[in-house]
Design goal:
globular; six-stranded mixed sheet; alpha/beta; Rossmann fold
Length: about 240
């Protein structure tokens, strides 16, 4: 797997009259998890969509190592190893779990290796994905990403529509992806749970990054997290 980081240099994303988020600078390295958290409407989804190519960035550059990728199409970026799990579960409901996973697990051996990490899915392998619970469907989405072995995985609100206890069962899977060498950018509403598995954190509010640094520093100082959410003192 390529060791080049994914780098954002003063990235801004605009919708309508003005920027939704601007001045974003950070690097996501393979094997690391960055939690991107903040209040609703802070620009988290817009930022993650600009990385995958769903939405163009209006300023700045997005680099993969020394190569600029923000001028590439979404399909071209996917070919560089960037995978994007968008809000909501994106299974093919009429296909079985096996058929869904076979979209990225190209050989029987790859399918077997993927299922070894998702034993719950193995029990439902011949069930239509649309008949699975919300948590199981999200597991199918993660399993597809696992089989594809992306260099970078962008996850937007994986917990959407799920009970916290179900979401907590999925978090170790995200950690496994990172352990396998994938860099993960995790956009999440359950801040404490996301920070619990992340190496680094970005807190955005009112369209700007108000904190960027280690998870340890953020979790050890509740006031710092509170100020970052409110858009107060910046600690970048």
């Amino acid at each position: 797997m390529n060791a080049n980081p994914l780098i954002l240099e003063d990235v801004a994303v605009s919708r309508g009259a003005g920027p939704v988020i601007s001045g974003v600078r950070f690097a996501l390295h393979p094997g690391r998890i960055v939690a991107l958290v903040g209040p609703n409407g802070a620009g988290k989804t817009s930022l993650i969509e600009s990385i995958s190519g769903v939405t163009p960035n209006s300023a700045g550059r997005i680099m993969l190592g020394e190569t600029r990728i923000d001028r590439l199409t979404r399909v071209e970026r996917a070919r560089t190893g960037i995978s994007h799990i968008e809000q909501g579960r994106a299974v093919f409901p009429s296909l079985t779990v096996r058929e869904n996973l076979s979209l990225t697990a190209r050989t029987p051996q790859e399918l077997k290796e993927t299922l070894a990490h998702f034993p719950e899915l193995e029990k439902r392998i011949d069930s239509a994905a649309g008949l699975l619970s919300g948590g199981e469907q999200q597991m199918v989405v993660l399993a597809r990403a696992f089989a594809a072995q992306p260099q970078f995985l962008l996850i937007d609100e994986m917990s959407l529509g799920l009970a916290p206890v179900v979401f907590m069962r999925l978090l170790p899977i995200v950690s496994k992806l990172a352990e396998a060498g994938t860099g993960v950018l995790l956009v999440e509403q359950f801040t404490e749970l996301a920070l619990g598995i992340a190496d680094e954190a970005l807190v955005v509010a009112s369209g700007t990054v108000n904190y960027q640094g280690t998870v340890e520093a953020l979790r050890s100082d509740p006031d710092l997290l509170h100020r970052a959410y409110l858009g107060g003192d910046r600690a970048v």
